[in-house]
Write a structure and sequence with these properties.
- The complex is a heterodimer of chains A (450) and B (282).
- With 450 residues, chain A is of the alpha/beta class.
- Chain A is 49% helix and 14% strand.
- Chain A has 21 helices and 13 strands.
- Chain B has a single domain, classed as MetI-like (MetI-like fold, Orthogonal Bundle), CATH 1.10.3720.10.
- Chain B is built from 13 helices and 2 strands.
- Chain B has 282 residues and is mainly α.
- The chains are: A alpha/beta (450), B mainly alpha (282).
- At the A-B interface, helix 1, strand 1, helix 4, helix 5 and helix 20 of A face helix 1, strand 1 and strand 2 of B.
- Strand 1 of chain A pairs parallel with strand 2 of chain B.
C-alpha cells in the first residue's frame, strides 16, 4: 500500500517537474533572446538590390494623419496604376503611438506592414528593436531621389550614418495669434522675440481684450515640443544628444523660469485641454501649435487667424523651430521584394507633386525642396509663412525628448508641474534630468551599446 | 475517460491562462522592450524598482486611494439608492433602468462625455460655475483634482450595479421578519442596522469582492480622461504606460502585473477565508 502511494507521489512529482521543464523550455523558446547583441545589426544586413524584383503586393500601415484617408487612397491608386503593384491599406491605429504599439507587438507574429507610418518620437524605438530597414540603398534601388527632401526633415531619421524613414506628414510648430484681438489692443505686428510676446500679451490683457493672452499646452499636448523653441531661444535645451545636463544649464532654467513667471504674472495660462481649441474658441489670443492645426484652426475660428515665425530668445534668434510629425519606414522583416516595392511606394507618396497634393488636403508641409506649392500659398497665405519658416529656421530635436522611451512624457509632466505650481524651477529640472538619465541608463543604453 | 472530457478544456486553459501567466513571470525578470528580439536579464531588479522608486510609491498611493474611495462610495451610495428604489412608487421601473444604464455603457464613451462636462474652459460644469460668478477648478492640471474627477466618474458609472444587486438583496429578505420587528416597535434605523444590514451581508460580501477586483483593474475611464496619467496612475494604468505606452518597458510592466496578480489573489483569499465567516446567510 505504502509502496503504491509512494509510487503515485513519485509519478506526480515527475509529471510536475516535466511540465515545469516543458514550460520553461517553451518560455525561453517563445521569448526574446537573452543577452543577444545589437539587434539593429540584423536589419543592416546587406542585400544585393540589383537582383531583386519588386513584390506584386505589399501592405501600408497608416493612421491617415491629418484626415488623409481619401488622399492616401488616391495616391495609392495612382501608384498601382503606374506600377501594377497592389497595396493593402491597413488602418493600424488612431494616432502615431497606436501604430507604433501595434507594429511592436506584431513583431512576434511577423504579420507587420511593409511600409509603416512612424512619428519622430516613435521610429527610434523601432530602430533599436531592429525592426526598421536602413533605407538609403533600397530607396536608390527603387529609383528614388532622396537629395530633394528637405534636409532637416530627412535627417530627423538619420542615426549612425543611415536613414530609417523618409518624411511624409511633417509639421513644425508656429506662432498663432488672433488678429482681431491684436487690432483691438492697438498692436500691429506679431512678436519676433519672447520679450515682445510678453509685451504684446500684457498689452492685450491691459486693454481688456482678453483674460488670457497666451496659452501653454498641458502634459497631454506635447509641452516639451511646444516649448523647445523657448529653451533654444535662451540657449538651453532638453539634452545635447544623450547628455541630459543641458536640462539644468542656466539657460534652460532661465527659459523655463520665464514661462513659470508668465503664468504667475497672469498674462499666460496652461490650457486644460488643447491650446488650439481654446484659441479657436476665442478663449486665448496666442499660442504655439503645430502647423498641422493650421487648416482646422482657420476653419473653426470666428476671427482672422494670424501666424508668424516662432519668436527668438536672447541668445538664439534664428534656429529655434523644432520639426515634428511623421515619416514612413520600411519593415526589416519584410522580404527584399516587398522592401523594394515599399521603397517605390514611399518615393511615390512623397514625390514633389504628390507631397503638395497631400499638403493641400491635410495642412502638413511639403517635404520636397523642389515641390511647387504656389497654389497652396494663393489659397492660404498663412501656409507660406509655415513653409518659409521650415526652410530657414528649423533644427533637429533633442534626443532625450524624441528618442528616449518615456522621455517626452517625463518632460511633459515635469513642465506641467512647474507651470501650474510655484515649484522651484532649478530643483524641478534637476529632478527631471535625474529621471531622464535613469530611463536612459536602465532602458536604452544597454541596447545602444550592444 | 477523464482526459477525453477534461482534456480540451485543460489544454485551452493551459495555453491561454497558465502559459501566459508563466511567460509573464519570466518576462518580469528581463529588461525587455515589446517587439524587440533581444533582452537582458534583470533578475529581481524590476521588483526592487517597483517597491523602492518614488514612482512606485506614488502608484501604490493612487491605487489604494482610488480603490478604497470608489468601493466605499459605490457601495454606500448604491445601498442608499437601492433603499429608495425598494418602494412601490410610480415610475420606479424607469428609475431603476436609469440608475443601472451607466453600468452597461462603454467606459470610453463615458470618459469622453464627462470630458465635455469637466473641461474648465469649454465644459458644461465650468459654464455653470461661471454663471454663478465662480471659476472652474483645474481638473486636468492639478493631480489631486484629476484623481477626484476620475473617482466621481467611476462611481457614477458603477453605482447602478451596486444598487441593482443591493435591491435584489433587499427583496430577498423575508418580509415577515421586518414585520415582526415592526410589531416589536423597532424603529426604522434599528430595523436597518439590526436586521436589514446583517441579512444583506452576503450581498455586501459579494459586492466588496467584485468591486475591489474591478476598481483595482480600472483602466478605460482613466486612460480617456487623463491620457498621460497625471495623478491617476493606478497599478493597471501604470502597467499600460510602462509596457505599451511611452516607456516601452515590458519587463517592468510584467513585474507590475505579477504583483497585481499576487495582491488580488491575496485580497480575495483573505476575504474568502476570514470575512466570509461574518456573513449571515438567511
Amino acid at each position: 500500500m505504502n509502496h503504491r502511494i509512494r509510487s503515485t507521489r513519485a509519478k506526480r512529482v515527475t509529471t510536475t517537474v516535466a511540465a515545469l521543464g516543458v514550460a520553461a523550455l517553451g518560455l525561453t523558446a517563445c521569448g526574446p533572446a537573452v543577452g543577444a547583441t545589437d539587434p539593429s545589426a540584423d536589419a543592416a544586413a546587406a542585400t544585393d538590390w540589383t537582383s531583386v524584383e519588386p513584390a506584386e503586393s505589399i501592405s501600408f500601415w497608416t493612421n491617415h494623419p491629418g484626415g488623409s484617408q481619401e488622399i492616401e487612397q488616391q495616391l495609392i491608386d495612382s501608384f498601382t496604376e503606374e506600377t501594377g503593384i497592389e497595396v493593402e491599406v491597413v488602418t493600424a491605429g488612431a494616432n502615431y503611438e497606436e501604430i507604433s504599439q501595434r507594429y511592436q507587438t506584431a513583431q512576434t507574429s511577423g504579420d507587420v506592414g511593409d511600409l509603416v507610418v512612424m512619428s519622430d518620437a516613435t521610429w527610434f524605438t523601432n530602430y533599436v528593436n531592429g525592426s526598421l530597414l536602413p533605407l538609403d540603398d533600397v530607396f536608390a534601388a527603387a529609383g528614388g531621389d532622396a537629395s530633394t527632401y528637405n534636409t532637416t526633415l530627412f535627417d530627423d531619421y538619420l542615426y549612425e550614418g543611415s536613414h530609417f524613414a523618409v518624411p511624409y506628414s511633417r509639421s513644425t510648430t508656429i506662432f498663432y495669434y488672433n488678429k482681431d484681438d491684436y487690432a483691438a489692443a492697438g498692436l500691429d505686428a506679431a512678436p519676433t522675440t519672447w520679450d515682445e510676446v510678453q509685451a504684446n500679451s500684457q498689452a492685450l490683457v491691459e486693454a481688456g481684450v482678453t483674460d488670457t493672452a497666451f496659452s501653454f499646452p498641458p502634459a497631454e499636448d506635447y509641452p516639451a515640443w511646444m516649448m523647445n523653441n523657448l529653451v533654444w531661444g535662451y540657449g538651453g535645451g532638453w539634452s545635447d544628444e544623450w547628455d541630459a545636463s543641458a536640462m539644468t544649464s542656466d539657460e534652460t532654467v532661465q527659459a523655463v523660469q520665464f514661462a513659470q513667471d508668465a503664468v504667475l504674472d497672469g498674462w499666460a495660462n496652461v490650457s486644460s485641454g488643447s491650446p488650439a481649441d481654446d484659441f479657436a474658441a476665442g478663449a486665448t489670443s496666442q499660442f504655439i501649435g503645430s502647423t498641422g492645426s493650421l487648416g482646422g484652426v482657420t476653419e473653426t475660428a470666428g476671427f482672422e487667424v494670424g501666424v508668424a515665425f516662432l519668436p527668438g530668445g536672447p541668445v538664439e534668434t534664428e534656429l529655434v523651430v523644432p520639426t515634428g510629425g511623421a515619416g514612413i519606414a520600411i519593415s526589416a522583416s519584410s522580404t527584399p521584394e516587398e522592401q523594394l516595392a515599399a521603397a517605390m511606394l514611399a518615393d511615390h507618396l512623397t514625390s514633389a507633386e504628390n507631397t503638395v497634393a497631400f499638403s493641400a488636403e491635410t495642412g502638413y508641409m511639403p517635404v520636397r525642396s523642389d515641390a511647387d506649392a504656389s497654389e497652396l500659398y494663393a489659397a492660404n497665405p498663412n501656409f507660406e509663412v509655415a513653409v518659409n519658416q521650415l526652410e530657414t529656421r528649423t533644427r533637429t530635436q533633442d534626443f532625450m525628448r524624441v528618442f528616449l522611451p518615456g522621455g517626452d512624457l517625463t518632460l511633459a509632466t515635469g513642465l506641467q508641474r512647474i507651470l501650474t505650481t510655484d515649484a522651484d524651477v532649478a530643483e524641478s529640472l534637476a529632478e527631471m534630468q535625474a529621471e531622464l538619465e535613469g530611463l536612459y541608463e536602465n532602458d536604452l543604453a544597454p541596447q545602444l551599446e550592444g | 475517460m477523464f482526459l477525453a472530457f477534461a482534456g480540451p478544456n485543460l489544454l485551452l486553459i493551459s495555453v491561454f491562462i497558465y502559459f501566459p501567466l508563466l511567460s509573464n513571470a519570466y518576462y518580469s525578470t528581463l529588461n525587455w522592450r515589446m517587439g524587440s528580439t533581444s533582452a537582458t536579464s534583470a533578475g529581481i531588479d524590476n521588483y526592487v524598482r517597483l517597491f523602492t522608486s518614488p514612482q512606485g510609491a506614488e502608484m501604490w498611493r493612487v491605487t489604494i486611494t482610488f480603490t478604497v474611495v470608489t468601493v466605499l462610495a459605490s457601495m454606500v451610495l448604491g445601498l442608499l439608492v437601492a433603499l429608495a428604489l425598494n418602494h412601490r412608487i410610480p415610475g420606479i421601473t424607469a428609475g431603476r433602468t436609469a440608475i443601472f444604464s451607466p453600468y452597461v455603457l462603454s467606459g470610453v464613451g463615458v470618459g469622453m462625455v464627462w470630458n465635455f462636462i469637466f473641461d474648465p474652459q469649454l465644459g458644461v460644469l465650468g459654464h455653470v460655475l461661471r454663471s454663478f460668478g465662480a471659476s472652474s477648478p483645474e481638473w486636468y492640471l492639478d493631480p489631486d483634482l484629476a484623481l477626484v474627477m476620475v473617482i466621481v466618474v467611476y462611481v457614477w458609472k458603477n453605482l447602478g450595479f451596486c444598487a441593482v444587486v443591493f435591491l435584489a438583496g433587499l427583496q430577498s429578505i423575508p418580509s415577515d421578519l421586518i414585520e415582526a420587528a415592526r410589531i416589536d416597535r423597532a424603529g426604522a434605523l434599528r430595523r436597518f442596522f439590526r436586521l436589514t444590514l446583517p441579512l444583506l451581508s452576503p450581498t455586501v460580501f459579494f459586492l466588496t469582492v467584485t468591486n475591489i477586483l474591478s476598481s483595482m483593474q480600472a483602466f478605460d475611464i482613466l486612460k480617456i480622461m487623463t491620457p498621460s496619467g497625471n495623478g491617476t496612475n493606478t497599478i493597471v494604468f501604470e502597467l499600460f504606460l510602462q509596457g505599451f505606452g511611452p516607456y516601452q518597458n515590458a519587463g517592468y510592466a510584467a513585474a507590475i502585473s505579477v504583483v497585481l496578480f499576487v495582491v488580488l489573489f491575496a485580497i480575495t483569499a483573505f476575504q474568502m477565508r476570514f470575512v466570509e465567516k461574518r456573513v449571515h446567510y438567511a
